[in-house]
Amino acid sequence: MSATRVYLSTTIPYVNGRPHIGFALELVQADVLARHHRRIGDDVRLQSGTDDNSLKNVLAAEAEGITTRELVHRNASTFAGLREHLSLSFDDFIRTGSDPRHRPGVERLWRACEASGDLYRKTYEGLYCVGCEQFYPPAELIEGNCPEHGTPPQLVAEENWFFRLSRYAGRLREEIVSGRLRIEPAGRRNEVLAFIAGGLEDFSVSRSVARARGWGIPVPGDPTQVIYVWWDALGNYITALNYGSGVRDAGQRHGADYERWWAGADRRVHLVGKGVLRFHAVYWPAILLSAGEPLPTEILVHDYLTVGGARISKSGGTGAGNDPAELAATFGTDALRWWLLRDVPRVGDADFTPDRLIARANADLANGLGNLVSRVVTLAHSCRDGVVRPCPSPAGTSRWLAAAAGPAGRPHAAGPASQPAWPEDAAALLTAIERSPGIVRAALADFDFRAATAGVWAIVEEANRYVDATQPWHLARAERAGDREAGERLDRVLGALVAACQVLAAEIWPFLPDLGARLAAACNDSAGALPAPQPLFPRIQVPQYPATATRSAQLLSARAGRPALSGAGAARGS
Ligand SMILES: [Zn+2]
Asked: 3-class SS at 382?
């Protein structure tokens, strides 16, 4: 059986401001899917990037008094830097403003739709939100304002190029209803189908050079217009694969990456926020249909995060407690990823506060998992000098899992013959271990990160219950008093617990790669024995402040070691 080939993408954000935690959610979700698929042996490519060609970037640069190029370069670097802050594993990162692969691909996509007769010029007047970079029909406005931004759109009248979207309503519907284009969760799929059923109108796909301030990719053959930034941005999913850059002499239409990762992939998966669903589930597939290229197979939609009850501003700017790089530096990448994966529901908005992140990390990572590993490794050292023969890992959770955690996660050296059998009273723990891979697989297929992490967490809970039930420190005392049977039982109990920790290291790795690697190092042999016990996840200590609206800022500044703030009302974010 050949490996499934999976191409995963995040959206590419505007770079008019700094990244916020809502985008971090999408990045982390995509990273988990990529790591999970790599681990089960699939062939995976994960792509992210930045949308540099937006008019919003032009306006932000004007406001700062710098060139658009300077602004884009500076901010795009901040987005690319999230790779380190969030421990992301993307294989490619495209900056649409400077990547040499992008413009030829966008032009090629334009030409392909033009050849299909789907592009035409028309004079148009409409209400345009620069924040969204889209026209709104009056019926979609809320009290005359953009539904996303709450700001009044501007009236724009000009001659533009239009795309014949109306032609593709039937085929789009068929792709979605048949499941060939899967949209998750189902509520979002229904939303798209309702939008299509309401009638699809052709949409403007260019801007006058004047209105775009000359920023963007010129329309091929029409230097008075630049290509609509959404057309440009959506194209990134294939331009990064060298769409349209085939070697003509070799008879290739496109680059090898395109043939491999788009045309030849089993799954083409886009992760998107609910606010850009229509662009990805209607406009983008229609453009691909027009160009005669395969459609995405899945569009996975996440909802939004609020921060301390307040909506994250979409037009840039980060408030206290909103910047993922700062949150990762303050609380740690593991804690931030864990909150995003463990607390954010599959459907519905979630509210982020540093308090929630701290509570979740301390309860799960410091107490639940940290205590488990600490107790097991400490016992292994105090009773067996760190030399424990783990029980055999059940099929499906065996050595490849440990190997996936990297060089630190070398499997235990002992061969199967010397491994103790699983104790009968560890049945519940063994069951949790056996079930976990299947639960994770099914949950991630459903784009349900909470359910996936719950599958892993069942092992932690059962393992802690097993420690409490077997009380191995009592067995150790009995052994020291000459009870040989207690000693033998201690071997098997420790064998079961070390095996559980080894499986956990591998199972948690796609979600928390850093912690997974530390755990693998802690519970696998190094030079014939387990390494000396070390805290896996130190509890996050926070000073006690009264709950106020500025608590986020207080927590951040306190954790960052800034001067202490005194009194409730005195505190202000920096
Ligand atoms: Zn808007």
From this structure: helix
What pTM was estimated for this model as a whole? 0.91
pLDDT per residue, tens digit, the chain (574 aa), is 578 999 999 999 989 888 999 999 999 999 999 999 999 899 999 999 999 988 888 889 999 999 999 999 999 999 999 999 999 999 999 999 999 999 999 999 999 999 999 999 999 899 999 888 889 999 999 999 999 899 999 999 989 999 999 999 999 999 999 999 999 999 999 999 999 999 999 999 999 999 888 889 999 999 999 999 999 999 999 999 999 876 555 667 788 999 999 999 999 999 999 999 999 999 999 999 999 999 999 999 999 999 988 887 654 444 556 899 999 999 999 999 999 999 999 999 999 999 999 999 999 999 999 999 999 999 999 999 999 999 998 877 644 344 444 443 344 444 444 788 999 999 999 999 999 999 999 999 999 999 999 999 999 999 999 999 999 999 999 999 999 999 999 999 999 999 999 999 999 999 999 999 999 999 998 888 999 999 999 999 876 554 544 566 666 666 655 433 333 333 322 2
List phi, psi (to 5°) of 24: -60, -35
- Check: CB of residue 216 under 8 Å from CB of residue 227: yes
How far does the centroid of ligand 1 lie from the alpha carbon of residue 275, in Å? Answer: 10
- Tell me, in angstroms, the distance from the centre of ligand 1 to residue 320's CA: 23
The CA 322 to ligand 1 mean position distance, Å, reads 20
Q: Is 280 exposed, middle or buried (0-12, 13-18, 19+ CB in 10 A)?
A: buried
The alpha carbon of 1 and the centre of ligand 1 are apart by a number of angstroms equal to: 47
Q: How far apart are the CA of 524 and the centre of ligand 1, in A? A: 52
CA of residue 315 to ligand 1 center, whole Å: 9
Instruction: Say how many Å lie between the CA of residue 64 and the centre of ligand 1.
Output: 21
Judged by phi (left if over 0) then psi (alpha if -120 to 50, else beta), residue 117 lies in left
**CA nearest 216: which of 114, 123, 107?**
107
Q: How far apart are alpha carbons 114 and 467 in whole angstroms? A: 68
**For residue 150, how far is its CA from the centre of ligand 1 (angstroms)?**
7
Q: 230 CA to middle of ligand 1, Å? A: 14
CA 131 to centroid of ligand 1, rounded, Å: 4
Ligand 1 centroid vs 134 CA: distance in angstroms? 8
Ligand 1 midpoint to CA 559 (Å): 35
Q: How far is the CA of 135 from the centre of ligand 1 (A)?
A: 9
